[in-house]
């Protein structure tokens, strides 16, 4: 008689059957499908202010940069506010001798932001095949490659880079961590990540208020031939996230 309880029983049944913790059944009578927001027509300064709210930047003792990121912006947004981000974030951290990227609370992001971030820690040449993402609805595989040119200078390949993770690190941030780990460019410190996905669709069940959330895309790393999805990204150094 209780739809919420039924949804959780169905979710447990599905997880036990197919072993995929990302598939969920929910009961949501008020659910309104989210429409991807168009690029907001607001001044770049205001956009940069919004991004600053999700990024924390400091230079710690021993000249170590600390960069906490909660949302990884996509290519379109980066192009629009890039110069301001360079001034606010990148110019501060560029002269440092090592960097900590804090992804412990990074739970959202855009796929097009992956090559951007990875490219800042790799060389301009040769270009590197970073990731392949297969999208089931369109039946298209997109290859993600490092970028030959970037806004501002690269951090380079020689300075130490550490990425902090938690069990809540999800999706695009997991992809960035997995790529940099397998390129042997970063040391991952913290907890095994959530094992999410790059794209989830929420599908309505018939004429009901029940929905099934299903991963509809898959990331396959060209170095390992595997994905970070479901199992997550294992740290080099395992410690509690806090």
Report what the structure shows.
The protein is α/β, with parallel strands linked by helices. Helix 5 links the parallel strand 9 and strand 10. The longest helix is centred in the middle third of the chain and has 19 residues. Helix 4 packs parallel to helix 5. Helices cover 26% and strands 26% of the residues.
> Which CATH-level-2 architecture?
Alpha-Beta Complex
Q: State the helical fraction.
A: 25-40%
Give a count of the beta strands, DSSP E runs of length 2 or more: 14
| Number of contiguous helices | 5
Radius of gyration: 19 Å
Low-confidence stretches: none
CATH class equals Alpha Beta
Strand order of the largest sheet: 2-3-5-9-10-14
* Structural class designation: alpha/beta
Shape: globular
The largest sheet, given as strand count, sense and whether it forms a barrel, is: 6 strands, mixed
The amount of beta strand, in percent, is 25-35%
CATH topology: 2-enoyl-CoA Hydratase, Chain A, domain 1
Q: What sequence of helices (H) and strands (E) makes up the elements?
A: HEHEEEHEEHEEEHEEEEE
CATH homologous superfamily title: 2-enoyl-CoA Hydratase, Chain A, domain 1
**How many domain modules?**
1
């Amino acid at each position: 008689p209780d739809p919420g309880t039924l949804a959780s029983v169905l979710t447990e049944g599905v997880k036990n059957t197919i072993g995929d913790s990302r598939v969920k059944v929910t009961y949501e009578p008020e659910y309104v499908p989210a429409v991807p927001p168009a690029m907001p027509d607001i001044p770049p300064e205001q956009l940069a202010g919004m991004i600053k709210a999700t990024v924390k930047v400091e230079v710690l003792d021993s000249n170590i940069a600390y960069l906490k990121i909660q949302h990884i912006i996509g290519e379109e947004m980066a192009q629009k506010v890039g110069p301001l981000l360079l001034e606010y974030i990148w110019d501060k951290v560029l002269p440092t001798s090592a960097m900590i990227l804090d992804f412990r609370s990074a739970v959202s992001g855009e796929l097009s932001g992956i090559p951007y971030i990875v490219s800042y820690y790799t060389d301009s040449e040769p270009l590197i095949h970073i990731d392949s993402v297969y999208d089931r609805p369109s039946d298209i595989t997109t290859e993600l490659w490092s970028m030959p040119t970037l806004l501002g200078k690269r951090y380079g390949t020689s300075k130490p880079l550490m990425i902090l993770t938690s069990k809540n690190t999800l999706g695009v941030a997991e992809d960035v961590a997995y790529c940099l780990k397998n390129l042997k460019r970063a040391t991952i410190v913290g907890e095994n990540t959530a094992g999410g996905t790059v794209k989830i669709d929420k599908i309505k069940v018939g004429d009901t208020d029940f929905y099934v959330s299903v991963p509809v895309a898959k990331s396959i790393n060209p170095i390992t031939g595997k994905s970070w999805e479901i199992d997550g990204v294992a740290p080099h150094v395992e410690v509690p996230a806090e």
